[in-house]
Structure formats: C-alpha cells, structure tokens
Design brief:
Length: 130
C-alpha cells in the first residue's frame, strides 16, 4: 500500500488500457455510424452527392486511421509508465544489493616473466592503433 502513496507503483497503465478500449469502441461506432448515416442520406437523395461521399470517406478514415492514431497514442502512455516501472525496479535492486556501496579495486595487469626477461602487457594507444 505504501508503494501507491509514494508513486513507486503506477495504476495508470490499467486505466490507459480501459480508456483505449472505450475510445476504440467510440471511434468504431462513430466511423460505422457516419458511413451508414451518409449512405442512407445518399440513398434517399437528401444530401448532396459529393458531400455524402465525403462523409463516407470520413467515416472510413475515422474507422481506420482514427483507431490507429488512438492506439499509438495510448501505447506511448503505456511505454512511458513501463519505463517508470523499470526505473523503480532498477532503483530498488541497486539500493538493496549487498554490493551496492562497495568500491571496486582497480584492474591488475599481469606481468609475464620469461628467462629473466620481463614482458609488460601491451598498452594500446588511442583507439588501439599504437
């Protein structure tokens, strides 16, 4: 319960999914409704023919592009909250790790001795070119 009050646990992704589903239903119903309404108006000849076909095209656009844009927008919100969850998990793991505050020793380089000859390890220069 404390995680909810400290905003370490987000409940918004669940709401985003519910809102996406409701928006999907609304856009689909609006697109189909506009197509059917303009089709009926064209059939009864109570609307200008060019305007009626524009309404049909708008209904198809709402049905397809509207739902795609709505999905992308909702996915962006879910991704943002997913990033937050991952950052909280990383913070939690690093603060509870037994080696979180240990300073590592510098890397020791080996020295090879052959027949009273000391061979130090090769140190590469800039970009390993020298």
């Amino acid at each position: 319960m404390a995680a909810y009050f400290s905003f370490e646990r987000m409940i918004t992704p669940t709401f985003v999914k519910v809102i996406y589903f409701l928006g999907f239903l609304l856009l689909t119903a609006a697109g189909i409704g506009l197509i059917v309404w303009s089709g009926l108006q064209l059939n009864d000849a109570t609307i200008d023919r060019a305007l009626g076909w524009r309404y049909v095209a708008l209904g198809v656009a709402i049905l397809t592009a509207g739902n795609i844009v709505w999905r992308v927008a909702c996915e962006l919100w879910v991704v943002i909250f997913g990033i937050h969850d991952e950052l909280v998990a990383i913070k939690y793991r690093s603060s509870h790790s037994p080696t979180a505050h240990v300073i590592e020793e510098p890397i020791r380089r080996e020295v090879v001795v052959r027949d009273n000859e000391v061979i130090a390890p090769h140190h590469a220069g800039v970009l390993g070119l020298s």
